[in-house]
Amino acid sequence: MAPIAVGDVVPEGTISFFDENDQLQSVSVHTLAAGKKVILFGVPGAFTPTCSMQHVPGFIEKAEELKSKGVDEIICFSVNDPFVMKAWGKTYPENKHVKFVADGSGEYTQLLGLELDLKDKGLGVRSRRFALLLDNLKVTVANVESGGEFTVSSADDILKAL
């Protein structure tokens, strides 16, 4: 499947997360993003070095600025279970705006066409690193990395596009 691109509507699918009341929620991406401007940024793995020390902190640090430019939701997405994503999110006590969501079996990642095969590293099939800007479900920015790179999907890259 071709990777999601500018002009595409994000596919319908389900992701999971723990809400503010610590209740596990499984919701449709369309329900979460319809009628909103949403940043969906994907990382290959929770607790991994580039993801934990650069990618996620950038979105947390720039969240207020992103929101001031009309962004309604900032969602961190990874092929992990929701318990891992909850634990990872708690390692950022300063976070007020980034929602950590799980694609436990990688099904939504496959619908996006953004799988990254890391079996040779013992990690299975994960998500490529990416940042999408969605406006009412339509992709207006699609910054997708090659391999394990981190060159086009930062919070600053999204800010430049807003």
Automatic annotation (TrEMBL):
The keyword Chaperone does not apply. Its EC number is 1.11.1.25. Pfam families: Redoxin. Thiol-specific peroxidase that catalyzes the reduction of hydrogen peroxide and organic hydroperoxides to water and alcohols, respectively. Plays a role in cell protection against oxidative stress by detoxifying peroxides. It catalyses: [glutaredoxin]-dithiol + a hydroperoxide = [glutaredoxin]-disulfide + an alcohol + H2O. It is an enzyme of class 1 (oxidoreductase). Residues 4-162 form the Thioredoxin domain. GO terms for biological process: cell redox homeostasis; cellular response to oxidative stress; hydrogen peroxide catabolic process. Keywords: Antioxidant, Oxidoreductase, Peroxidase, Redox-active center. The gene is LOC108816517. GO terms for molecular function: thioredoxin peroxidase activity. One of its GO terms (cellular component) is cytoplasm. This is Glutaredoxin-dependent peroxiredoxin. Belongs to the peroxiredoxin family. Prx5 subfamily.
